[in-house]
Amino acid sequence: MNVFVNVSWRRTASLGKNCDARSYSSNISRLKILFFGTDNFSLPSLKAIHRNWKQGSTVSSLEVVTSFKAAKNSVKQFSLAEGIPVSDWQSYRPNEKFDLGVVVSFGHLIREEVISSFNRGMLNVHASLLPQLRGAAPIVHAIANGHRRTGISIMRIEPKHFDIGEILLQSTIDIPRDMLMPQLHDELAQLGANCLMKCIDDLDFYNSQVVQQDSSKATYAPKIDRNFTEIRWKHHTALQVYDLYRSLYSLAPLKTWFCGEPIKLFEIAYRHDQTKATNRIERVPGCIEYSRKTKQLIVWCCDGFCIEVLKLAVGGKKTLTAQDFHNGFLSKVAHSQRIFGDRRCLACVKTAFTACKKLR
Length: 360
Hints:
360 residues, alpha+beta, 8-stranded mixed sheet, 9 helices, 15 strands, 23% strand
């Protein structure tokens, strides 16, 4: 369920002070919009503005700025197909012919002279409930952190910093416990487009209702790097491994190591109803067992719970089923070596023989 929130009613009391009521006034009723975006998250917002323009509604003209360097740039492709004038960010120079700038998943810090060229300011569609998850990857971090709710924030663009501007509108969305990143991405992209058009269609009202962000409550969602994809078996619980997998689904496989070889985990599962086996010998984190019944790898985590691995690859080679991995690799090594480790421990662990027996 999507819940639209007029943030001033929800937050003014908690802020303890009146929000900044700067006015971005104009004597025009229709808007000339310049859109900044690059990817599939941007596209629903661009399509919504374009549809409004074609219908002769609030938007009187539309142009696009994007990065021509981006491969398979869906924003550029759509703009060219629909006859929308499009410019490359590298060569773009600000001018005063537009009323409002709109930024959606653009990936570049907007220069101050660009921001000041719009008499109605600039709006940004951000995929989190700011000030939570400021940064480049809020959708990934929301799932990886185990959040059960996230949302969209429509905010003003401010110079020199990302994601600090005043908020015009927020809308929340639930994250089901098995939802994968692509589904959440698509739902938030459409929700963002809906929220954006609400603000564009009644810009004066939402500009009069803005709320300052409380930076003391800010959390961050930095760009994903290689280290983010690696499982730390001694620190990640089974649910944390599963959440990490859900957050990176379709972006990158989870990574680990087996007997000095890099491993990519392409498909895993987590049973939410599992109970901790307190009556068994405690297993070393990363300990691998093969279930002949389910033909899956059972990998134990630091909290005593496990994940199930269905598909994986060894050393950059072809994808294997769990049964293939067991027959070709796991069954060839001693029980003491049947452990996934991390980059800092390439040698097989030799001390887990008694803790790493196969399931019977």
